[in-house]
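User: structure tokens for Glycoside hydrolase family 36 protein, please.
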Amino acid sequence: MNDTVTTAHAAPAPTEPLLDEVSIAVLSPGHPEVRPRWELTSPPDGPRMLSVRADGFPVEIRLSVPLGDAAGYWHPQGGWRRTLVADWEGLSRVCLVDGPAVGCLYEHSGATLLAFAAADPVPEATVRFGVSEENDTHVVHLTLPASDGPHRLLLVPRAPSVAAAMRPLRTWFAAAFPPMPVPDAARLPVYSTWYAFNQDVTAEAVEAQAGPAAELGCGVLILDDGWQLFGNGRGYAGCGDWQPDPAKFPDLAGHVARVRDRGLRYLLWTAPLLLGPEADCHDRWASSAPAPATVPGAFVLDPRLPEVRRHVVELCVSLVREYGVDGLKLDFLDEAAVYAGDGAGDVGLAMTGLLTEVRRALEAVRPGLLLELRQPYVGPGMAPFGNMLRSFDCPADATANRVRTLDTSLLAVGGAVHSDMLMWSRSAPVEAVARQLIGSLHAVPQLSVRLDEAPPEHLAAVRFWLGRWHRHRELLLDGLVEPGRPDELYPVVVAARGEECLVSVHGDRVVELDFAAYRRVLLVNGSDRDRVVVDVTGGSGLVAARVHGPDGRMMDDPLPLLPEGPRPLAVPRGGLVSLVLTEGPR
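Assistant: Done. Predicted tokens:
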């Protein structure tokens, strides 16, 4: 990678027009004698395809676009940095398990100025990006490793929003990387033990949650960290043996069977690449795990070693077969990236081989297999290896859950997007409970509170919102979703399907209601106000309105006539109003 301070001082390369206002330059870093050739094609369906040939050499593809009215740059590793950054600080290193090479520059209207994705999301790559102060442009410099074939980049012409630009990319990736089958259980709410118990978990305590969880609408239970020997202290120094702690789970298989008898599928947490010095197997595997993990106490097994891959496959199969679970929560796969760039082999390619064998071996012993993956390893290249795509940890943060699940949904291929586990304190007002549920509304919710100790009003809110989620599941998970600008943190999210739409409002924003387009509208109030301001377009209409509070109780209904123009609707915070057009528009 070029180590200059800014991209303006990088090695020169001739620039040519590419698409819309985007310009391109290509070169082979470290090989000035190589002259890569590029071609842009326009398939009848899908994104444009840029092919760059460099005769087996690495390439650097430089894209630049005038700043215009640019507002932000979205990419999967962006986190909270989704506005514009300078090109001397914009940098991401990506591979299969550490986020794909994808980016989208957009303006204040929400329309895109540049949207791209590396067609092969597996190998290690580097993306340098940001505002070029010298040239008044936004640049992306994508460095790809040597390849026997062409280096390919997908490009989407100017689109009205980031979400609109990502849709053709998702379609292309779904065909290129056929996703793992998604059984219905992967699309059901989950009860997780993590925030409710952390590592202080026992069979009896989990079974006490199973019945209430099933009654509230959950279909899956995940036993998280703490079930295994040395699973304590909130560190990972004991990882590696993956044997049940007999004091906590004296009969793990019997426990799993009892939970499944309550109607719940069962997943078991494991972090198969972590190796801690307290594990009995540490000495055997220490030479295969030379690099420390980024999480405390553990080292990382190197997936490029054949013996490591065999070990991980055998471990996963033994957990599923011996304890009768329906699948695994595969955690910390992104730790493999600690080996990226060390010259000993591509981490992404090794993980592809490992996960291909894990899935094949597990499906042979467990039909309807469930595998949960977690940000950042939820990109299109991971579609064949997991069917539950979870948001990164954000305890009690409804905003982060909304943002992270929507970020994942922009590029999700096949698998069901899941929220991080929802938690709240026992003293929380019922509106706060509803806010957590509303923050995960556009994904599959996961709960992690002690349901057998929850106040009745909290359980009422959970029951109501999970009931609504079940009723509108196809709309929320399969509808056309428009969340708006990433830098605004998606304050108004619209999910539409046929004549029905659901709008979740998370700030003091005006919501456009177009009764010419939709006859049934559900407005969800995730804001801190006891009203939602709407702007009726497409003609006024008579509506049947029904208002619910955060715990589902019926409230006073608004006036049945909604004239054109703006007006407030009385909707309590944490509540909703359903509107059904009975006559109109006029």
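User: Anything notable?

Assistant: The two ends are 61 Å apart (CA to CA).
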